[in-house]
Design brief:
Blueprint: E1 2-4, H1 9-23, E2 29-32, H2 52-69, E3 73-76, H3 88-101, E4 105-108, H4 117-133, E5 149-153, E6 167-170, H5 175-184, H6 191-210, E7 218-223
Parallel strand pairs: 1-2, 2-3, 4-5
Antiparallel strand pairs: 5-7, 6-7
Helix pairs in contact: 1-5, 2-5, 3-4
């Protein structure tokens, strides 16, 4: 399950990992907290007579097609952006979505982004929602889920966002699906080249880290909760 502040966040930063999951027969769901209608839709606002509601409609259609390209479902809570505000009611809605889906893996933003205030807001909301959905560590009066593994996807400026990669996902077999998903996000088409290059860079890092010469493209993630294993 990927939860983003805006409707396109999942495409650039975790589209490959989602495609890997669904290609292997797994299920994936994308939850957007907003459409990014104010701060993430610059190209759409160049059209004469544009309205907020129409921007939302276009962004929803783009995100649905992008999610379909990588085999995922898409839903948006439409909480508004710039600023994204997550009140108690919205937090419960997010926790309910996590509880309903019961993901093995949960992915969201870093806890800091000096250039995008919505991203850190999303992190803290998702972190709390995860704990609530899992029962916050105590027996509770509502259904709970097994605590999902918790990862952060790579932000646009990783060095400025407390992001240190701990996990690389080889997305070489599904790079065409990710490219197709990115191509659907026409309101932010300028990001396609940037994240195409980032996939190649992380592919290089993944090759050097693993010695697997066949890796050409990868996505980077940071683990939040320690991994539990039977042996090293």
């Amino acid at each position: 399950m990927v939860i983003g502040a805006h409707s396109a966040d999942f495409v650039w930063r975790a589209g490959g990992a989602v495609a890997v999951t669904t290609a292997a027969g797994g299920e994936a769901r994308v939850l957007a907290l907003s459409y990014g209608e104010r701060g993430e839709s610059g190209e759409l606002w160049k059209e004469p007579g544009q309205t907020v509601e129409h921007v939302k409609e276009v962004r929803h259609e783009e995100a649905e097609r992008a999610a379909a390209a990588i085999g995922a479902g898409f839903e948006c809570l439409d909480l508004g952006d710039y600023p994204l505000e997550v009140d108690a009611e919205a937090l419960v809605r997010i926790a309910d979505k996590v509880r309903e889906f019961g993901p093995d893996v949960l992915v969201t933003h870093t806890d800091r982004d000096p250039f995008n205030p919505d991203h850190a807001t999303a992190f803290f909301a998702v972190e709390r929602a995860r704990a609530l959905a899992a029962g916050a560590g105590v027996p509770s009066a509502f259904d709970t889920v097994t605590p999902p593994e918790f990862f952060l996807f790579e932000p646009h400026q990783p060095e400025l966002c407390n992001f240190t990669p701990t996990t690389f996902v080889d997305i070489t077999p599904v790079i065409e699906q990710k490219q197709a998903a990115m191509a659907e996000m026409k309101a932010q088409s300028y990001l396609q080249t940037y994240y195409g290059q980032r996939a190649e860079q992380r592919g290089n890092h993944a090759r050097r880290s693993s010695g697997r010469s066949e890796i050409r493209y990868a996505e980077a993630f940071q683990r939040v909760i320690p991994q539990v294993v039977g042996a090293l």
